[in-house]
Amino acid sequence: MRDPVCGEEVKTTTYKYTYKSVTYYFCSPMCMAEFKKNPEKYIKNIK
Ligand SMILES: [Zn+2]
What positions does the domain TRASH occupy (predicted)? Predict the structure, then answer.
């Protein structure tokens, strides 16, 4: 899976966050915090 914030390939499931029934994985706590601030912005980038 890919980090929706920075676009990096994520190899661990340490940092995950479920938003609107979809679980997203992140490379770092910073990316996760960034996503939580504005999930819609990053979800738009994925599609
Ligand atoms: Zn990241």
Answer: 3-39
